[in-house]
């Protein structure tokens, strides 16, 4: 990425040692290089129906992805990665559910060390990025998900795909309301008395710019036209914000007052699938808010546990069997139109969730006509390619423009067979971490067919 035209060093050089500059103005020019985008890793389970997932013909749409790709704004920021295969380098333990659940975002084979439980063979991408990238957010990373299923977990390793290292699973945070408190703080007091006190404080407090008005004028006289306009932009934004606070006697900015739209859903949800659907939607809302407010650098999320056995009662699909894992996903080989119909209905519902996340992000404005979705990279993956346990042609989508580091979006990439390790290499480079490979393939390179600006 190119260096900013006007940096904090330039600002301080122009100010010299005689001027006092507001801290916010110094911080606004603090970074020589742009920060990496916000990263979201989404792990779905049980594969997809290949025939109905990938666009065919000349159009960029499909039955399963229709909700996402039929929205022109979102479709233009979505990139589908076809022909990426889960490479079994390292001879992983476990069945394909375990191999993909632990391998897709780590590049390492799953390991059981002689036990029925399969755990990650190495650190997952969320932790690698959090350790290596200069994220510059209040919270580096959060790994969360929903485990609300009326089914006993197959093995302990399927509780989380996030790992700090070999055989070291990071816990999946399930308490939605605890996460809201962690990211946004305790709910503020919005009583009439509290609002009146806030209004009085705003009336009594002069602008932070007033105390240094003379120095700012001197600084602007020392700058060229281009630099002066950039400083003017920041000063105008602060003055306008202060005016709106004083006029409305508002509480602190929206990002310090965000809370869940519902609080009546038991957060843990474990063992009660009735909580799964509302919790999954609330987590999409939470992630969108956390990213839009730029509070978290990396968010990783799992739609259930590895090889999940949801029944999907909330979808009311005619003919839905009791266990969609055994009696839909495992039978989804194209031979039964009824199974295909049910499978497509389930997979399309996951698209609704991802579309909700993307829509919320695209509604948050960022500078120069951009949105929070433009500044983000959502990597939507799956533990297997199909419910029948195949690992070729993994369903993968990138949503967002990664802060402009994805030079081209809104198309399907098919550059021939590629190992999934290239996905990790690509994400690292998009996040500002130079890498030639990932996991067990240290020199595999980035995904062919993508146009990157890194």
Mean pLDDT: 87
Percent strand? 5-15%
- Structural class assignment: alpha/beta
CATH C-level label of the domain at 37-184 and 276-430? Alpha Beta
The Cα radius of gyration reads 24 Å
Major sheet: size, sense and barrel closure?
Answer: 7 strands, mixed
Helix and strand sequence: HHEHHHEEHHEEEHHHHHEHHEEEEH
Shape: globular
How far is it from the N-terminal to the C-terminal residue, by CA?
6 Å
The largest sheet has its strands arranged as 4-7-1-8-9-2-10
Helical residue percent?
Answer: 25-40%
The total beta strand count reads 11
Question: Can you give me a brief rundown of this structure?
Answer:
With 454 residues, this protein is α/β, with parallel strands linked by helices. It contains 15 helices and 11 strands.
Please describe what this structure looks like.
The protein has a domain at 37-184 and 276-430: Alkaline Phosphatase, subunit A (3-Layer(aba) Sandwich), CATH 3.40.720. It is globular, with a radius of gyration of 24 Å. With 454 residues, it is α/β, with parallel strands linked by helices. 34% of the residues lie in helices and 10% in strands. The chain has a seven-stranded mixed sheet with strand order 4-7-1-8-9-2-10, sandwiched between helices. Strand 5 and strand 6 form a beta hairpin. Helix 8 (176-184) packs parallel to helix 12 (276-292) and helix 12 (276-292) packs parallel to helix 14 (337-362).
Helices and strands in order:
Blueprint (H helix, E strand, L loop, with lengths): L7 H8 L7 H6 L9 E7 L5 H4 L12 H4 L2 H4 L2 E4 L2 E2 L10 H8 L21 H8 L6 E7 L17 E3 L2 E2 L6 H9 L7 H13 L8 H10 L2 H24 L27 H17 L3 E7 L21 H4 L9 H26 L13 E7 L14 E3 L11 E3 L4 E2 L1 H10 L24
Parallel strand pairs: 1-7, 1-8, 2-10, 3-11, 4-7
Antiparallel strand pairs: 2-9, 5-6, 8-9
